[in-house]
Every structure is written in structure tokens, then in C-alpha cells.
Write a structure and sequence with these properties.
Layout: E1 37-41, H1 51-55, E2 61-63, E3 69-71, H2 81-85, E4 91-95, H3 96-103
Antiparallel strand pairs: 1-4, 2-3
This protein binds iron/sulfur cluster (SF4) (2 copies).
Length: 104
């Protein structure tokens, strides 16, 4: 619960014991229309190592029982960290506009 954290601490003692980005799904609400890039996983190359799941600061990557990662685009912020850390280089950052044109 994000409201457990005092976002305007007046003293060091008021500061939270953990970072503000404590993993929780959608802590700050759904991503607006401002996102410009979205990650796309090439499942043919994915080794299910879970590195992307581990590093996503929004905790929006979930896994199947067999470890297959899935990204919740309602909450993904498009930061690209998952693509940077993927050891198989199988996550591409794709412009949202291009994705919408392909889907249309
Ligand atoms: S980091 Fe890359 S290889 Fe590992 S689970 Fe995620 S997408 Fe797959
Ligand atoms: S782009 Fe950022 S927020 Fe979206 S799934 Fe990757 S690491 Fe998480």
C-alpha cells in the first residue's frame, strides 16, 4: 500500500525503511498514454531465467508455472530495464505508436 509511506518526510526518522519503489502491482495506478516504448519478449529466444522479473521496478512481470514471463502493459512504464538486463537480448523496446499501427 503506497499510502503507508510518508512521501513528505520532515526528518530522517520519518523516512521509510525501504525504497519508495517497494514492489507491488500498480502501486501508482495504471500507466497513462505518455508511454512511448513498450517491451516485447521474443519467446523463441527466452530461456525463462527470470532476470527481467527480478529487475522490473514496477513488479509488472509475472511468470507462468514453467517460468514464462508475461508483462502487464496496463502498468508497465516502458523504462526498458528489462530489455537492458535480459541476458538473451530477447526483449525489444518497440515504439507504442508502431505497435498500435500494427494492431490496427
Ligand atoms: S530476462 Fe530475458 S531470457 Fe530471462 S526470462 Fe526475461 S525475457 Fe526470458
Ligand atoms: S519496461 Fe520497465 S516497467 Fe515495463 S516491464 Fe520492463 S522493466 Fe518493467
Amino acid at each position: 500500500m503506497v499510502n503507508e509511506v510518508d512521501i513528505n518526510p520532515k526528518t530522517r526518522g520519518d523516512m521509510p525503511k525501504t525504497s519508495y519503489s517497494k514492489p507491488t502491482i500498480g502501486s501508482m495506478g495504471k500507466t497513462g498514454s505518455w508511454r512511448t516504448f513498450s517491451p516485447e519478449i521474443n519467446y523463441d529466444e527466452c530461456s525463462k531465467c527470470r532476470t527481467c522479473w527480478l529487475h522490473c521496478p514496477e513488479a509488472v512481470i509475472s511468470q507462468d508455472e514453467d517460468g514464462t514471463p508475461h508483462i502487464d502493459y496496463d502498468y508497465c512504464k516502458g523504462c526498458g530495464i528489462c530489455a537492458q538486463v535480459c541476458p538473451k537480448h530477447c526483449i525489444s523496446m518497440v515504439r507504442d505508436l508502431e505497435k498500435k499501427e500494427v494492431e490496427a
